[in-house]
Every structure is written in C-alpha cells, then in structure tokens.
Amino acid sequence: MVFAMKTLVLFVFTTFFIISFVNCHTTTMATTPANYGINWATVVCFQISTPCDVAGRYGCSQFCYQWNYFYDRCEPNKCCCHR
C-alpha cells in the first residue's frame, strides 16, 4: 500500500509540474504573425465629406469599395479606408 501511495504522489506531482511548466512557459514568437489583425498603417483617409454626409457609413463603404478598399470609417469631413 505504501508503494502505491508513493507512486500516486509521484505521479500527481509530476503531472502538476508538467502542467505548470507548459502554462507558464513563454512562447518563442513574441511578434504578431503576418496577416493577423488590422495594420493601421495601411489606412488612407480621403478629405471628402460627401459619402459620409449623404449616406452615412454606407456611403463611405461604397466609396471605399469603389476604390478597392475593404474597410471604412467616417470621421469629420473625411472617409477613411483600409486596404
């Protein structure tokens, strides 16, 4: 019975150690992988207020789509698009 208890305790501590090491270990890649998330450096804002004023966000979406952009947002007096 003592042998089984020692084996069980050893197994539990070994499992706990392995799980702790895996959870606390830092990843090797600290940077964001390519094509992940939004790169805000590719946002282009056009100083025209017509799309946003006339049709709101839909107007800005159509303007961006027309110029081959896929993301949009309206700001005061400009429509910003993301490529």
What would you note in describing this structure?
Residues 1-24 form the signal peptide. This is Knottin scorpion toxin-like domain-containing protein. Keywords: Signal. This protein is an alpha+beta fold. Helices cover 48% and strands 17% of the residues. It has two helices and three strands; from the N terminus they run H-E-H-E-E. The protein has helices at residues 2-24, 50-66; strands spanning 43-46, 71-75, 78-82. The protein has a three-stranded antiparallel β-sheet. Strand 2 and strand 3 form a beta hairpin. The radius of gyration is 27 Å and the shape is rod-shaped.
Task: Please sum up the structure shown.
The protein has helices spanning 2-24, 50-66, and strands at residues 43-46, 71-75, 78-82. The longest helix has 23 residues, at 2-24.
Number of helical stretches of at least 4 residues? 2
Distance between the termini: 68 Å
Strand order, largest beta sheet: 1-3-2
Major sheet attributes: 3 strands, antiparallel
| Coarse morphology | rod-shaped
Radius of gyration: 27 Å
Poorly predicted runs of 5 or more residues: none
Q: Tell me the strand percentage band.
A: 15-25%
Q: Name the average pLDDT.
A: 73
Order of helices and strands: HEHEE
User: Got a strand count?
Assistant: 3
What percent of the residues sit in helical stretches (DSSP H or I)?
Answer: 40-55%
Classification by helices and strands: alpha+beta
